[in-house]
């Protein structure tokens, strides 16, 4: 675990020394991929989608990267947008391309570490080195490393190039999707991290209690209906799913989010099973990477690196 400071890698854990609270940093690369290469919704620099030109870097362990893998799968982008997968263990060098099951050699520059791609794109950069990452192989630059934006781009950018139909952020539902996303992001997606990385009792409880309030609310929302917004899957469902699928195997134990399990919530459990049943999604879920990543990378939380055998996997 570490970060780049003026282009140099420093092995440094998250700084919670002030008040014990984990604060997630804003992603550093925010340009936009689209069908016509025009500017993004807020005027960001545009890149034109072309078959094979871009590469998505992910960790199978990471819930944020997982969103992008799901949209890539649902939109049928396998041949249009190649993927590189990092090793699950993230320690003193951050994410690496050390060989392992499912981990490919890095094809652009034969990088050993993900931070080499960041400094290739922006020498002298200061900031965290995170996945997912959308790389432009033509200009050797990083288009974007914010998953919520990458999934919006993949939703439409390849539509004229053979992507499968499917709109996970449809115009009429956007306001409702945004509202659900906002609550789920703060209290669930990032809530589990705020609980797990907290270094004071107060900061931990401040995250865990709202997390379970939102899970209770989601349980009601999903009782008697299949999807969070409207009557088809939207990005709100995808964003919730990547946290729920990791919850019982990892967050419940490792991050101390243990008031209840997802298995104790009938509607949330059924929702998770429903998502797993959607063609293409199951292949994006790699429990071996997920469990080993968390239990072997966060040595401040689990110094022995021992990975629990359970729980039994219901999916
Ligand atoms: N805002 C980013 C967050 C990505 C993120 O934090 N990814 C984690 C992996 S789950 C990471 O790479 N962490 C490395 C670090 O923080 O140094 C997104 O949603 O894309």
Structure description:
With 315 residues, the protein is an alpha/beta fold. Helix 4 packs antiparallel against helix 6 and helix 7 packs across helix 8. The two termini are 31 Å apart. The mean pLDDT is 96. The protein binds glutathione (GSH). It comes from Luteimonas wenzhouensis. GO terms for molecular function: glutathione transferase activity. Keywords: Transferase. This is Glutathione S-transferase family protein.
What topology emerges from the helices and strands here?
Layout lengths: L1 E4 L2 E4 L20 E3 L11 E3 L5 E5 L4 H12 L8 E3 L28 H8 L5 E2 L4 E4 L4 E4 L2 H10 L17 H16 L1 H6 L4 H21 L13 H17 L14 H12 L9 H11 L18
Parallel strand pairs: 3-4, 5-6
Antiparallel strand pairs: 1-2, 1-7, 5-8, 8-9
This protein binds glutathione.
